[in-house]
Write a structure and sequence with these properties.
By secondary structure, this protein is an alpha/beta fold. It has a single domain, classed as Rossmann fold. 35% of the residues lie in helices and 24% in strands. The longest helix is centred in the C-terminal third of the chain and has 17 residues. The structure holds S-adenosylmethionine. The site of S-adenosylmethionine has 24 residues, from loops.
Length: 204
């Protein structure tokens, strides 16, 4: 990856998203995680301070070295032990049924082979394991959706391959989860094109 993607974007992203309203939603997303936990596309680790106090260890995957560099600093500032893997979510080096929980926060938009990553996260979840997600994606408002499609090219270029119009509900509900619960809302202080949120849990 280039200088912008590895040196500039991680810092700008971290600065933009490290905000109290995001921390509130992250804390809600993570309130029930337990056991063996995998976080995909962990980025700079903005979820780390939002895990419940009894979480002592997590495993992370993240392909960007620039993101991982900032993540190391955040790990040092928390008490959580992190098994930090520098790789993408499409080919996870873990045995099947390894994790009780998989976490993804605004990451499915950025994974190039997202269907493959969905297959992988299902594979590594134990039966009854839970996938906790807080994602942005396709708005049901056709006017907003139209602008999401228009902004997609620029967004992908500037924001690490992020697509604004991913059908997160379809992506998750089309998979072999035994139950899926999703709450939708527009994120406060975000343009509607960028902040139509899918917050929920899917049980294997
Ligand atoms: C918008 S950032 C979100 C970061 C973090 N999850 C957070 O909550 O702030 C999207 C992340 O997905 C990562 N990503 C890109 N391709 C990926 C892949 N193939 N597998 C896993 N993560 C990927 C990016 O490097 C980036 O860190």
């Amino acid at each position: 990856m280039g200088f912008y993607a590895e040196a500039i974007f991680p810092r700008v992203y971290d600065w933009l998203i490290d905000a109290p309203h995001w921390a509130k939603h992250r804390t809600e997303q993570l309130a029930a995680v337990e056991g063996d936990i995998l976080e995909i596309g962990v980025g700079t680790g903005l979820n780390l301070p939002c895990y419940p106090a009894d979480v002592q260890k997590i495993t992370t995957v993240e392909p960007s070295e620039g993101m991982n560099k900032l993540l190391r600093k955040r790990i040092a500032a928390t008490g959580i032990e992190v098994d930090q893997r520098i790789l993408g979510g499409e080919a996870l080096p873990f045995n099947g049924e390894t994790f009780d929980c998989v976490v993804s926060t605004v990451t499915l938009c950025s994974i190039p082979q997202v269907q493959q990553a969905m297959s992988e996260l299902l594979r590594v979840l134990r039966p009854g394991g839970r996938f906790f997600f807080l994602e942005h994606g396709r708005s049901p408002d056709l006017n907003i959706y139209k602008w999401q499609r228009r902004f997609n090219g620029l967004q992908k270029h500037l924001v690490g391959g992020c697509r604004l119009d991913v059908d997160i509900r379809g992506l998750i509900e089309s998979r072999a989860f035994s139950a899926v619960s999703i709450k939708n809302f527009y994120m406060e202080k975000m343009p509607k094109t960028h902040g139509y949120m899918y917050h929920g849990v899917a049980i294997k």
